[in-house]
């Protein structure tokens, strides 16, 4: 019942929605879906030996329950709402309904390719348009290798990814503006900068970083190691030559420090992404040009004939191989052209080199031949001289027989002369067979015009000029191709659909192949010319002017479908790439429309799996290639930020608190500039507190000395001076010892040189001593206090306090400051601080070199003599470091030494270990910690990973990335934010679509979100590739949710008006009642679905099996159909099983449930011969008053007992009128539903429900309407009416509640395994004919008073059951009832197998007979056919064998049950006993009557009640 699905969706009840779909999956044959046990299908509730349930069994569901009765069909899942949307469409459009989407996609009958009625969008269209990438991933995962989902077009001709691309049109510029904040990109040079000095126009040549090839590989020109063809594009692997890599290593590391070039080759150089400049395909070989400085030409294919240029090694090259020096000069190849048997290249200096076959002189020089008969071959590259030596060449082109090169405004040709060489200034132009040297084309159209591009085919040469004019050299002359703007008459084959000014943009490119020449306009249109046909036409007409006819091959109708690049392949087929990066290929149509002409034979089909393509190439042998340019977002969009070393070291200055300020440097700089006190002379960048420090330094010396001493005393009181490991003093102020850090003083090479000795003199200006406490002290001789303070200030701040650039001071003061500058310069020279000395000498501020000085100090082993902390690492390793710098740079160590605990973490270690403090980081390897410590010392950027050789020897990028990820992990652990960003940036250089998801999973937990945000944007830009190749499957749910949010945010930025919510807010403001109306409509719709669900639940409780599917209650159904559906909502006829066909014999196995049902009293059982059916409103009406408050679809429709009512005559097809229901116990309803089970079809059930006359007389053999009743049915009705006349009418039957269950009377349950193992009983003697069966009447209440008729009819249905296998169990209680058995007669009239019946308590109100229209019956039969079709799908041999085994077991049990029942009937010979029957267990019971016999009863219920009922039916 689809109303349950719609109801749960509107209520947002995902659990019930999932359970309902899961419980109905057993009705379909789904061999590819597995349950938790690993077996195919749902295996719960089946008999031994079966691997899938039969007859719609759903575990241990009781008959009459909604879950057991509902069968979800394809039609139900395809139902549309009033807006033409299915449930899957709605779920995919809402990011909060992912659970519903998963549940629907897990159902085997769901169709994700179903289109809505409004725009023809599938679920994939809708999910991508609404930014629900999680749903799109589920759709792609549920339908692997289903390219039809990707190719399906909507009513506008857009595929799902076309819709997605249009929703993000122009987003790349927004993303780059957000992430690229102007930081220099020093990791790898930008491609634009690499190629900015090239001679020719850049738009003519494609650039990218990946090459994909596919198609025919019979000539081995795809670049793969095998000769197999490729149906789908595959990425080509290119590897730089070793010599080029070693050169780059030498350039990157000019100071080798004794290392060889192989040792200098690191991961950064080896794994640097290669940039593709161009690609060219020919029939027998292919070429790729990169942007490297040299050795940038790669070739593959057949080497015979010297076309590859590798010299004597003319072997076939399966993979692309670089043509390196000395074969070519050490210069970069800027252009390449391939003929069929020769190759032409243009170097960066304009030289032309050729090699290969010289059969027609196409190499431009002569080749010596040993034998005149052999073909002249040049097997290695050779330079072409002659006229080309005078000016540099900018480009080249080649055909099978000739070569063309061009300079700025000159054109040179050589090769075979077929009229395409442009020889116009010679009388022998037509008689000259070949031109073996370059010859300049003397054409007037070249005068004063620059050449942009040239192309060549065997019969023609085309030239594109800078004014967008195209000239063709063919037929021993030249002519101009008609342009759409200047020659519109030549374009009569198409209609101009756009303004003419579009064409005035001109042409941007030309391409040629086979016999075709194509031109590409700047608007993205393609025009084609057939050269051979034009030449043939002129030859037929005689010599004359060539009449070129240009046809439109492609018209740009959407902006993202404008063509960027194109090429011509086999038989003149066109392949091109569009602005959105897709590749389209011209293919033959399977069916050609009549009257469509030659153009109707072809269509353009997209090449799957290719996105972000910038160039495409094709060959005449059926090979294809394309260049892909990945988004540069991750390579240059991750912002690291400036180094923080200076900001971290400033607080380490011992007297820095004297001039500490809360102002930022910008505010302080503004105040200083307002004072006009100086000359505007200050360091850049100006450190914090510099102005205040400058003012403090200008105080008198005694004031400075006093304040400094007082500050140090206060500092010692509030902070231990042990944070500084040494002091510095001057002999002029002996009593003042200024605390400093030895690692900061280690910036001086002179100081580091005497650290290893422990003491010594530094030139003549100072001496290093060790005090009695073991502390180092540097004593400066005869140095002023201000000079010493300025030196220390420089060591910590990386600049000095300028005291000598001031105007408003006295001369004496100026002379004093000048002496201080000279003294500081001498002191800097003595300490070998050369940059400081040079800056003081030139009276300028020094450059900031703290990071470089500390890097040198870190690499000097003498520096670590003063280390006071040891970090214990993995494998027993350790590192010595300076705790002062560690605390200043790392929050982890700062907290360890101080923090809220006040350093108590290390208190015991400091007391026990007087020299070193040990920190346990034994989970960190040494090589990882060395990288982290080096960053703590000198705060490097991405260049810090230079020299790392992890993965170099193995040539494995993954090993290097794992190493960087380990560093990133430790950086996160130590809370080093900038180091984390540096690691993320290094990883970002190597991100591609194949590893983006895995890297994002690994880095997502980092506190720095730079990589995470950038990678989500990268995935958004490459969404099509990642979804088509299932590359998002690695992402967890949280990251998928963030990806959805990123996509929706980008869509809102591209279309702020329609997606920002402004329009909705405006509507709500204009129509404030809109929200209330929407909520009310939703509530009414939900009420209609609840009513339909309850209506279906009521009708399903009257069915004996789940074979009858509910009539569709789609909200889109027309009103007439809804009225018809309302009439047949409750169908009382019993259909066959949906999987195994109509019930035959004793096949109702799934009635044997283990649940225990309550028993009925004898009086109530005697009166329980009729029951009434309650009706609900249709789906548009209000819910009935008796609906459950919880609205659960599993709530039972209530029944009320009543006395029998006289039946009035009416046709069985009359319209029923149902009464309001009253609640009954669920178990009673289930037992009543079980009582209606029968093996007859719906039509038979309706015929048997014909009206009964008031007297027990025999019914007429004809029904109303002239329908003739069979003799068998007539006899059965006569027996039923005889029994009806003998039934008691006392009301005492209702005195005992039907839900009173005696727990003590419950018999032990018997498993199905015991039944199978039990031997067959001895066949009993044939039983006598049983008494007639009690009649089961379905009553309906009378209609409302204004519509009630005196002849309100009722209908009766005989609810009979075939015998079932009986499991004998002892009974503990009994009850009596009237006999209620009947017999079945064969054609010969003999007694057949006995039949059992179950009576239901009657209802007090009369009812009208239910009527079925022909349309209702046809709908039911269609449901049956669909279920039978699903069941009859292809099954495995194991399933068939298990089903056969199950049927054999069932037939044996049926025979045994029949024989047992016959024996019971023989013991009932005395008459109609009314004794009490005991409660049964698992459908069994015993009855002891008041007559002379004793019988054993059986029931098919789920517990005690069913057994009790059978005891009533057969007990005596």
Proportion in β-strands: 15-25%
Q: Span between N and C termini? A: 43 Å
Side by side, the strands of the main sheet go 30-29-33-32-31
The whole-angstrom Rg is 47 Å
How many helices in DSSP terms? Answer: 49
Describe this protein's structure:
With 1516 residues, the protein is α+β, with helices and mostly antiparallel strands. The protein has 49 helices and 44 strands. The strands form 12 sheets. Strands 30-29-33-32-31 form a 5-stranded mixed β-sheet. It has a 4-stranded antiparallel β-sheet with strand order 2-1-28-27, with no helix packed on it. A 4-stranded antiparallel β-sheet has the order 3-4-5-6, with no helix packed on it. The longest helix has 30 residues, at 1437-1466.
Topology, please?
Elements: H1 2-11, H2 14-23, H3 66-69, H4 74-77, H5 87-93, H6 98-106, H7 123-129, H8 133-142, H9 147-151, H10 160-167, H11 171-179, H12 191-194, E1 210-215, E2 230-235, H13 242-252, H14 261-264, H15 267-270, E3 276-281, E4 285-290, E5 297-301, E6 317-322, E7 333-338, E8 342-347, E9 352-357, E10 377-383, E11 395-398, E12 402-406, E13 411-416, E14 434-440, E15 451-457, E16 460-465, E17 470-474, E18 477-480, E19 507-513, E20 516-521, E21 526-530, H16 531-541, E22 551-554, E23 563-568, E24 574-578, E25 583-588, E26 602-606, E27 613-618, E28 623-628, H17 633-636, H18 645-649, H19 665-675, H20 690-697, H21 701-718, E29 726-730, E30 733-740, H22 742-745, H23 749-755, E31 760-762, E32 766-770, E33 776-780, H24 785-797, H25 811-830, H26 834-841, H27 850-859, E34 869-872, E35 878-881, H28 883-889, H29 891-897, H30 907-912, E36 917-920, H31 926-938, H32 957-973, H33 977-988, H34 996-1003, H35 1010-1021, H36 1023-1028, H37 1037-1054, H38 1056-1059, H39 1062-1070, H40 1074-1100, H41 1119-1127, H42 1162-1167, E37 1170-1172, H43 1226-1235, ...
Parallel strand pairs: 29-33, 34-36, 37-38
Antiparallel strand pairs: 1-2, 1-28, 3-4, 4-5, 5-6, 7-8, 8-9, 9-10, 11-12, 12-13, 13-14, 15-16, 16-17, 17-18, 19-20, 20-21, 21-22, 23-24, 24-25, 25-26, 27-28, 29-30, 31-32, 32-33, 34-35, 38-39, 40-42, 41-42, 43-44
Helix pairs in contact: 1-2, 1-40, 2-6, 5-6, 5-7, 6-8, 7-8, 7-10, 24-25, 25-26, 28-29, 31-32, 32-33, 34-35, 35-37
